[in-house]
Design a protein that fits this description.
The chain is mainly alpha-helical. It is built from 22 helices and no strands. The protein has helices at residues 2-8, 14-43, 47-82, 93-119, 121-128, 134-147, 150-166, 170-195, 198-213, 216-221, 235-266, 272-304, 309-336, 338-345, 353-367, 370-385, 390-414, 416-441, 447-475, 484-508, 512-521, 536-539.
């Protein structure tokens, strides 16, 4: 009964919703780390992983532009506005009709684009990997063609996930990336030994299918039934179109960043593209678990609170502070323990010490902007809640130009690490501009309250960083640092000491986030009066 309630029930508290999404994101990203461990051990930072990551880029671009462009900018706010009382299927006919229209239109567009991508794969891959040639180029084209199946499945899954988020059914939604990574891991473990590198591409397709299927039971429970309804003139579909055009352009700029990194990395030493992606995956761990989890959990609430600036300000301030409370110490741990993290996660098989050094340097530069990437995910959604996707587009365009320009300049001096440094600078510029324009367009940022909390958290994190460095020195003589378990012991011991010191200092400085964390752990979350969400009636503006 409890499992059914968790699977099918709504989660009306942003904190608990973020916990569910964050925990699932942690598991998913842990599986992603395990996936990278397998890939690094099997292939090392060489041509094979360069091929895999390059082949993945264009299908992923299609998914990001169309699916994320439509969903993050327009689908959820419009779908929420169409919802009536969710107890009966007939109460939500307008919402279900809208969902079917979006699904069918998106599929038609995706099918067309994927067919074009499969046909033009040789030309596309040559353009984004000018440093590839011969067998390396032909293998990249082969993998890319197969991976074009994944945007179709992920597109459907994206619509389903948007519906589940709108109903605040975060559990099933949060499981989808876990199953996605399980599919890729299955491909690496069971298919690659038998059919070679193409097994990784099949793993991506299988993972995309699982990403969809795990959400379907909850969708049906909510009352959705698929119908082939195609109405290109539907006013809500046109509204999504108007909203998503600048959002899609914004994502196109972001994807242009990644394509530029792929182009530049393909011209560097063999394995540079692999190092860039492996380091990026490691630094995105806290971004995904904390930044994106809070952003996803808070977005339906922010969409419902746009008419009440005071409530939106309180909700947004709490969300930003809670995110920083977790992201700041995570950054310190990643920077202080980067060597241990990389050796434990990636240091096996063909991933040698030279690969480790390159990844360490790259990860260090990525780590500078973890806080900015996390807050960007939240602030962008505030603009989307106001159905304003034009401003984030122009901001992303400026920050991307900064990123690409610096990447071109720095890659020649710092190699692949220069790409990471450029990425971080671009992310910080993006945050600064989002903050400035949000204050101009909507006074919903309580800068004083956010700064007050951030200062305390930075002080606590700095002290915990010193504790981590001392802990490493103390633990090193006690373990065999030439073995996996010795490095793992040093990593865990120093991380635990750093976390305890951070929480202790935050408690001494009276950060309310430390108390809230304890209340969540001990199942004593604040009463309903302090919930930061609204019910379905408030969501309709009643």
């Amino acid at each position: 009964m409890k499992l059914n309630k968790l699977w099918y029930g709504s989660i009306n508290n942003i904190g608990w919703a973020a916990v569910i999404v964050g925990l699932s994101s942690f598991i998913s990203r842990f599986l992603g780390v395990f996936r990278d461990h397998i890939l690094a051990g099997q292939f090392g930072a060489g041509d094979e992983l360069d091929i895999y990551y390059a082949a993945f880029r264009v299908p992923d671009l299609i998914f990001n532009l169309l699916v994320l462009g439509a969903l993050s900018a327009g689908f959820i706010p419009i779908f929420v506005s169409l919802l009536d009382k969710p107890e009966k299927e007939e109460d939500n006919k307008a919402a279900w009709r809208f969902a079917n229209i979006v699904t069918n239109c998106l599929l038609i567009i995706l099918i067309g684009l994927c067919i074009i991508g499969i046909i033009l794969a040789p030309q596309i891959i040559k353009a984004i990997t000018p440093g590839f040639s011969g067998e390396k180029l032909s293998k990249t084209i082969e993998l890319s063609r197969l991976m074009f199946l994944s945007p179709l499945l992920l597109g459907l899954s994206g619509i389903v996930g948007g519906i589940l988020q709108s109903f605040k059914r975060f559990f099933a939604y949060s499981l989808s990336p876990i199953f996605y990574n399980l599919g890729i891991i299955a491909g690496a473990l069971f298919l690659v030994p038998h059919i070679g590198l193409i097994g990784l591409a099949w793993g991506v397709v299988i993972g995309a299918l699982l990403h969809l299927l795990v959400q379907v039971p909850t969708l049906r429970h909510l009352g959705f039934r698929y119908q082939f309804i195609l109405d290109w003139r539907d006013k809500h579909l046109r509204q999504i179109g108007r909203i998503m055009i600048p959002r899609t352009l914004g994502l196109a700029v972001s994807q242009l960043n990644l394509l530029a990194m792929t182009v530049l990395a393909s011209k560097l030493a063999s394995g540079s593209l692999a190092v860039f992606n492996l380091a990026n995956n490691l630094q995105s761990f806290p971004v995904g678990i904390f930044g994106l989890s809070f952003a996803v959990a808070a977005f339906p609430t922010m969409s419902a609170l746009v008419a009440d600036k005071d409530k939106l300000r309180a909700s947004l301030t709490a969300t930003i502070r809670q995110t920083l409370f977790l992201v700041i110490p995570s950054t310190v741990m990643i920077l202080g323990l980067r060597a241990q993290i990389i050796r434990v996660i990636l240091g096996s098989g063909r991933f040698d010490w030279q690969d480790t050094i390159l990844t360490m340097r790259t990860l260090s530069y990525f780590g500078i902007s973890i806080f900015a990437q996390s807050l960007n995910a939240i602030l962008v959604r505030v603009f989307y809640a106001y159905k304003n996707s034009a401003t984030p587009f122009w901001i992303s365009l400026v920050s991307s130009l900064v990123n690409i320009s610096l990447a071109w300049l720095l890659s020649g001096q710092l190699g692949v690490a220069g790409l990471a440094l450029a990425f971080s600078v671009g992310s910080i510029v993006n945050l600064i501009l989002l903050w400035i324009f949000l204050r101009i367009k909507a006074p919903v940022l309580d800068g004083r309250a956010i700064a007050d909390g951030a200062i305390k958290m930075v002080i606590a994190a700095a002290i915990s960083g010193l504790a981590i460095m001392e802990a490493k020195k103390i633990i090193a003589p006690l373990v065999n640092m030439r073995t996996f378990w010795g490095i793992f012991g040093q990593l865990c011991g120093a991380a635990i000491i750093g976390a305890v010191v951070y929480l202790a200092i935050c408690s001494l400085l009276r950060c309310p986030e430390a108390k809230e964390l304890w209340m969540m752990i001990s199942h004593k979350w604040p009463s309903k009066k302090k919930k930061m969400v609204v019910d379905a009636e408030e969501a309709r503006g009643v």
